[in-house]
Amino acid sequence: MIDQDQNQLGVIPINEALNRAREVGLDLVEVSPMERPPVCRVMDYGKYKYERKKRQKQAHGAHVIVLKEIRLRPKTDTHDREVK
Question: GO: which molecular function terms (predicted)?
Answer without folding.
Answer: ribosome binding; translation initiation factor activity
